[in-house]
Fold this sequence. Notes:
- The protein contains ten helices and nine strands.
- The protein is α/β, with parallel strands linked by helices.
- The protein folds into two domains: 10-166, Vaccinia Virus protein VP39 (Rossmann fold, 3-Layer(aba) Sandwich), CATH 3.40.50; 171-234.
- Helix 4 packs parallel to helix 6 (129-137).
- The termini are far apart.
Amino acid sequence: MDKAKYDQHFMLDGKLLKEIVSYADLEKTDVVLEIGFGRGYLTRNLCKKCKVIAVDVDDSFTLDLKNVEVQHGNILKMIEKLEFNKIVSNIPYSISEPLLKKMFKKEFELAVLTVGDSFYEVIADKTRRLGFLAQCFFDVEKMQDVSRKAFYPEPRTDSVVVKLTRKKRSDFEEALHKLVLQDDKKIKNGLLKLFEKKKTKKEMKKLFEEKFFDKKMYELSNEEFFSFIDVLKTKIL
C-alpha cells in the first residue's frame, strides 16, 4: 500500500507526545477524538487519561488498547456523527482546512492539534477569512513549535501545536456561526431564515444589492468576505 497518499508522518518523540496530551487538560470523563492514529504513539498516551475514539483512513492500522474505540474511514465524512468533547491529534496536513471547516460546525470544548506552520499562520491572521472565522469561534493559542525532525518520515514543513478552545459567542459571532452552519446555501437565503422575525423581506432586499449575497459563504473572495462582514455588523445586527 502506498502510505504517501495518506500523508502519513509519525511523531516519535515521547516527551513531545506527553506535552501535547498535557495541553488538553484531560479528565477521566472526557471522550477524545484522535484523527489519524497511525501506529498509535499518541493514542497510547491518550488512553491512559480517558476514552479515545481513534480514526484512521488507512485500515491496515489497528490497535488493541483499553479505552480505545477504533474506527476506519474518512474523518471529513464521519465527524458530524461522532460524540466527543475534545480533539487531540497530529492531523494529516492535507486535510487541515476542510477539517477546520467541519470543526466550526461541531460543538466540543477544545482541540489540541499539530498543524503545518503555514496553516497556523493562516488561522492566526484575522485579516484572512479562515483566520477570522477561527478566532470568532475559538480562542487560538500557539502552544509550541515542532521541528520537522520530530517526525518519520520528515514532512516538508515544520509544525506548530495549536490549542483551539471554544469560546462564548457574541451576538455577531452567533449570527455568523449560524450562517456557517448553512454554508451549503446562498448567503441571502441563510440571512432571510436567520432574520425573518427581525427584518422584513423588503428591508433585507435592499441589502442584497451586493452581488456577494448570491454566493455561498466559501465562494466569497477574501475582499467579498470582509465586505459581507461589514454589512452584517453595521446594517443587519
